[in-house]
Amino acid sequence: MAILLTGSTGYIGAHIASNLLADHSEPLNLLVRARDLREARGRLWRSFQLHMDSPQFESFANSRIHIFLGDLTDTRFGLANDEYARLVHTTDSIIHCAASLNRKSEKSCLNVNLRGTLEVVQLAMRARDHHGLRRFSHVSTVAVAGHRANEVVQEDTAIDWNRSDYDPYARTKKFCEHMVHELLHDVPRAIFRPSIVLGDSRRPETNQFEMVRAFVFLAGLPVLPFRPNDRIDIVPVDFVADSVATLHQKEKPDHVIYHLSSGRESETFTVLTEALSQAQGKRAPMFVPELEGPSSKVLNALAGTAGKVGGTATLLKVFFPYLVWNTVFDNARVVAEMGRRPAPFSQYCYPLLRFSRENNFAYQYRDWPDASATSAAAAETQNSAQDSRR
Ligand SMILES: NC(=O)c1ccc[n+]([C@@H]2O[C@H](COP(=O)([O-])OP(=O)(O)OC[C@H]3O[C@@H](n4cnc5c(N)ncnc54)[C@H](OP(=O)(O)O)[C@@H]3O)[C@@H](O)[C@H]2O)c1
Q: Which residue CA neighbors atom 26 of ligand 1 most closely?
């Protein structure tokens, strides 16, 4: 029996997949958007190559990875009846990580996050009814806490239906959690809420540059429109992926909901900018909090305009509320259960910044060496052979 993982071609999902492959033994059912198995393998190789070399990938792809070519927004993922039945019959736990993070598109968040999560929940119910479901883990976000200011938010009180949300992403992710609790109340569940996931504390390389770009832009400014002692809750992706994989596989986790965050140990803008200034031998920026209002207006005016400036403004406009809310998410649960804390951002932010600048915010992807279709065909045969044994 396998773990169904959605979102494995994405940044966090690929980290979770590689963690499960390296440290655990179950096969993985991966839902991947692609026209055929060959394209799906190519897409997986792109997202997995940060974590493994091609022989290792090849070996996992031929043994423990089972690809299902599907889209969350299609009924039964758009799978043929026999494929869908195979997915139900071979899945004994689920990690639902896929989502639309498009904060500007209500339509995309509605379709992928709400309709897509409902499809995954329906699959979970079918697996539960067929042979039982060991656990349903849902990767959510701290953004479900809605509008906040100067708070330390606890897991069980984060959702307050009377609060407004910052964007359609937060709103739909909040309802996803609700769906999981309401429809799968009789299944062991875990809700994981990462804070701002930025970089990997083990290495400078990343293939996700959206937030990094915003961070590098801000790091280059001589004046910042923030309060210097505000804290910003940033967590490295390696801590997030390890926590999801470990707690998903644990027989009896202590809690249902976990903040995967830096919590009370989140660092202030002053600490972060000083760490960066020291590493670069530059002067630290000045903080002028009075500029918060005007900056927000400038971002609103520039967002959506053409060119590099417009692009950066759009990005910053989306993230600005999360930079000035001075709100952190208590992580005592995950720290106690993992027996360790996430590395502080000040320890690894400079290598991340340097890597991103040196590579012009693009990862140098290596092509999959096996360009022939033979291996994909072999995998197809192997998948069906393994299926008949499961
Ligand atoms: N990144 C953060 O800072 C952060 C913070 C808190 C929470 N989270 C949560 O973490 C999870 C993963 O985020 P991420 O940063 O890794 O995002 P990402 O890199 O954008 O990955 C999103 C994944 O979802 C898949 N997906 C999207 N629409 C799909 C569809 N219609 N059908 C099937 N798959 C679909 C994507 O597949 P394609 O490759 O085919 O597009 C991709 O694998 C999300 O649930 C997000 O809410 C992220």
A: 98
